[in-house]
Specification:
It contains three helices and five strands. The protein is of the alpha+beta class.
Length: 135
């Protein structure tokens, strides 16, 4: 882990199934995440991804990069442009700071409309993988 290092991008196809399944899995039953007509009546062009799904995808991106021993310590994200079905979100990351086995990563997820998510993730990658479970 080196401050300033860029992580490889991750392209995530935004499908209707991903949006609906993410909402159901996170127990977010707001109609704008599964009912296109209701979403349109409320001013949206279609159903759109909820923040909990986005949060999970950001977490996946970081743990995919840092490996199975990575522990997310803090995830602080903000949503921007909606993720609609048929689009692609590209997640990118830059390591902002490193303190021992802990790094702060700036994450951006962009789609055709602009930035869907921005924020930071603090992640620890134990040098002794078994140390995390011991006290």
């Amino acid at each position: 882990m080196t401050a300033g290092a860029e992580l490889p991008p991750l392209e995530i196809p935004v499908t209707r199934t991903l949006i609906v399944a993410g909402a159901i899995a996170s127990r977010d039953y707001q109609d704008v995440h599964h009912d296109a007509e209701s979403a349109r009546q409320k001013g949206s062009q279609d159903v759109f991804m909820n923040i909990l799904t986005t949060n999970g995808l950001v977490g996946r991106y970081i743990t995919d990069q840092f490996g199975p021993t990575a522990v997310l310590r803090k995830v602080a994200i903000r949503l921007g442009a909606p993720n609609y079905p048929g689009d692609t979100m590209v997640l990118t990351g830059t390591i902002e700071a490193v303190d021992g086995d802990t790094a702060t990563v700036r994450v951006v997820g962009a789609n055709s409309l602009g930035r869907h998510v921005t924020g930071t993730v603090t992640v620890t990658v134990p040098t002794d993988p078994g140390a995390e479970g011991r006290s």
